[in-house]
Amino acid sequence: MSLIRPESPSRVTQSGPVGGLSFFADARLIACDAREEAGCRAVVDAALDFGRGKIDGLVNNARMTGRGDFSCATLDGWDEIMTVNARSAFMFTFTRVTLARLCAARGSVVMMSSVAGLMGEQGLAIYSAWLIALAYSLAL
Hints:
- By secondary structure, this protein is α/β, with parallel strands linked by helices.
- It has a domain at 56-139: Rossmann fold, CATH 3.40.50.
- Helices cover 41% and strands 15% of the residues.
- The protein is built from 4 helices and 5 strands; from the N terminus they run βββαβααβα.
- It has helices at 37-50, 75-93, 96-104, 125-139; strands at residues 2-5, 8-13, 28-30, 57-60, 108-111.
- Strands 2-1-3 form a 3-stranded mixed sheet, with helices on one face.
- Strand 1 (2-5) and strand 2 form a beta hairpin.
- Helix 2 runs parallel beside helix 4 (125-139).
- The protein is elongated.
- The model is unreliable at 1-18 (pLDDT under 50).
């Protein structure tokens, strides 16, 4: 397993299964700032390198909720939640390389969700808005 820590780009190598699960024995974890296109592309490139040019699946799980009363929401808060949640999911999913590799492998895109992705929830209006819109649209 290779781990790239956000505070240091150096790699730390550890052999053996992760968490006692043998199917994680050869896993690679790569940290990135999901708000930045360069970070998302670096993860896709590392996945392609690790998978020898193949991507079998993608799990979008970068999340920020920003719980609070919608009447107190700010444009900066809206932008931050949309950037972390919707923009990062878009950047990971819709890079030309990711789409081509997923289609070639008949791979899947998994959007991690919560009950807020099924219906709105008090205090989570911005979070629910992006999740419902993007996840449902991708499923069509």
